[in-house]
Design goal:
- The structure is a single chain.
- The chain is of the alpha+beta class.
- 35% of the residues lie in helices and 43% in strands.
- The protein has three helices and seven strands; from the N terminus they run H-H-E-E-H-E-E-E-E-E.
- It has helices at residues 2-39, 43-48, 74-82; strands at 50-61, 67-72, 89-93, 97-101, 104-115, 118-132, 135-144.
- Strands 1, 2, 3, 4, 5, 6 and 7 form a seven-stranded mixed sheet that branches.
- It is globular.
Amino acid sequence: MKKYTFFLIPCFLLGSLCQAQQAADSVKAAVNLLFDAMRASDAAGIQNAFADSAILQTIGTNKEGRTVVRNEAVKAFALQVAALPKDSADERIVFETVKIDGPLAMVWAPYKFYYAGRFSHCGVDAFQLLRVNGTWKILYLVDTRRKTPCN
């Protein structure tokens, strides 16, 4: 019996790791759908990446240097990006952290944004995703924006 236990424990652990990686990959794919739609100037694709009750916010600074939070409707954001020429809005992210608990996922992703091939700004995207009918949707997206430092 000890021989089988010794063999089964590594198999169980490996199976759990594979499932966790597959779940993380599906969350990353859902986030990447947003950026693919942005590059394609696809309003419907952008809106489809978000849950119906999604919240979209940006943290920045005003002219006085104070921190401000700007709210934006997903539909307005989608229409704004869709009005751009294709491949103009290119946000390049790095998946630094992905955490999942059942139907809830969190992504922390530093990014650099390029407009028409030229660097515009950088920051961090913080996503909360919800699994709806087996599909990950962005429930909340807040980002920071700055010109420097962008490591």
